[in-house]
Structures are given as C-alpha cells and as structure tokens.
Amino acid sequence: xxxxxxKLVRRLAEAEKVxxxxxAGISAESGVPTFRGDDGLWKKFSPEELANFDAFMxxxxxxxxxxxxxxxxxxxxxxxxxxxxLVELEKWVxxxxxxxxxVDNLHQRAGSRHVIELHGNIxxxxxxxxxxxxxxxxxxxxDGVPRCPHCGGMLRPDVVWFGEMLPEExxxxxxxxxxxxxxxxxxxxxxxxxxxxxLPEIAFQHxxxxxxxxxxxxxxxxxxxxxxxxxxxEILPELVAEIRKxxxxxxxxx
Length: 254
Ligand code: APR
What we know:
The longest helix is centred in the C-terminal third of the chain and has 18 residues, at 232-249. The chain has helices spanning 6-14, 25-28, 41-44, 47-50, 53-58, 60-76, 81-89, 106-110, 168-180, 199-205, 232-249; strands at residues 17-22, 95-100, 115-117, 120-127, 133-135, 155-159, 183-187, 209-213, 226-228. The chain folds into two domains: 6-32 and 79-119 and 166-249, Rossmann fold (3-Layer(aba) Sandwich), CATH 3.40.50; 33-76 and 123-159, SIR2/SIRT2 'Small Domain' (2-Layer Sandwich). The strands form two sheets. It has a six-stranded parallel sheet, sandwiched between helices. A three-stranded antiparallel sheet has the order 5-4-6, with helices on one face. Helix content is 38%, strand content 17%. Helix 7 (81-89) packs parallel to helix 11 (232-249) and helix 9 (168-180) runs parallel beside helix 10 (199-205). By secondary structure, it is α/β, with parallel strands linked by helices. The structure holds adenosine-5-diphosphoribose. Adenosine-5-diphosphoribose (APR) is lined by residues 23-25, 28-29, 34-37, 40, 101, 119, 188-190, 193, 213-216, 218, 231-233.
C-alpha cells in the first residue's frame, strides 16, 4: 500500500472544500461486484438487455429479476473501511461532498451526510405513469412486475440506464462541487462513463488538487496531481489517519 504523500496531507489540511467522486470500486471490498472488473457485471450480463429503457419495456420481468438479484446483494453487504473513512474525513475538513455513481446506498448507510447520487438508488422505485417514488416495502410482485400502489402504473428501479439523462439537480450540484473544490478525489471509478467521467477534469481545470485512488490506471491517471495505487478500503483509512495526526500535531482539532 502506498504511503500518503505529505503534500496531500498539507493540501487537505488547508482545504475549505473537498469533493470525492466514487464508483463501483469503493464497494468492491464490501462484496458488491464492479461493472468492468474481471468478475464485473458487464462480463456476465449484457447492459443492452438489462440496463436500458427499451430492454425494460421489451421484457420488464427479466429486468426486474436482475434488479432484485442486485438488490439482495446490496442489502446483504456492509459498508467497508473505505466508506467509513469518508465519514470520518467529514470531521477533519470544513466541507466534504461525496458524488457517487453507485446505486448501492452504502455511503448513506455508512453515515455520509452530503451524498449526490448521479445514477439513482437501487432501493427506490419510480412509477412510469405518475412519477411517484415507491419504496421497496410497497412492492407487490404477485403479477410478476410490480405496479404503482397509487395509480397502477408500471414501476421501474429508480436508477439511470444507458442512454438516459442524469437527474438534473444532482448533475448541477456535481458540476458546481467540481468547479469550486480545493481537493478532488476520484475513487474506484474507471472514469469512462460520461458525464460523471468529466468531473475530475472539470475540477482540474478549475484549479483543484486532483487525487486518484485505484489499483488500476484510468484516464484520470494522466492528469492527477497524485495517484494512490491500491484499494480504497486500505488507502482511505490511512489517509484519514494521516490528516488526523497532522491536525492534532498542529492543534487544528475540530
Ligand atoms: N478500491 C478502489 N478501486 C477499485 C477497487 C478497490 N478495492 N476494486 C476495483 N477498483 C477500480 C477498478 O480498477 C476500476 O477502475 O474500480 C473501477 C470500477 O470501474 P467500473 O466497474 O467501470 O465501475 P464505475 O466506474 O463505477 O462505472 C461507471 O458505469 O456501468 C455503468 O452506471 C454504471 O455507475 C456505473 C458506471
């Protein structure tokens, strides 16, 4: 595991606003499969058949079965030390925003307070007719595909599928956070899916100190100020320990 460069600890200690973009990699150590890793979901399942609107309308039952399978995984796992470290980091910097591409709700379960969900949340459902959000408890699969308890319309998982627009307000907040932060972390994402993948570069162009945490190189590697090669569940706790030590030694206790 790489050492945490002092330059990064100093930058964090001086930072007013820190932003962390996360992808499937931060949940890998919890047991949630990534998408493009060796045992990634897209190696076993085809996004064309399962993660787009036309496929859903063609075979809603198959898509629902797949989301119920993923939901079961997400509900059975726990947030890992990577998620917990981001909660702890909130105490040591004036402002910390987590922008996640993950739909697994693990940042929220770990206790992160400022989470922007770019791709929705797998534990929520949305009605195609009335647009209402329906919780999991209200789902009735007796007809195979759940229906809206309010209007009877067809329900879909409240996640963003390929070819769909991201939630407008979440995207606006994400751009604003990337444009105004002092330190920007790109953690556990292959940074190939847009518009999320544009955020590290936007932060870089607006003068942020960009840090990548990933065992593998990504397009962010080319311009990041610091690259920490390894697992987020190991590196992020180490990083928080360093900032805690630095702030305690310099009397900057929160
Ligand atoms: N710690 C940190 N990073 C890790 C770890 C780990 N323990 N394990 C794997 N990674 C890295 C991989 O090296 C890879 O770069 O996490 C990244 C996961 O990449 P993807 O599987 O492509 O996931 P992500 O970047 O989140 O995908 C973006 O694509 O399929 C869509 O909507 C889906 O939100 C998703 C989007």
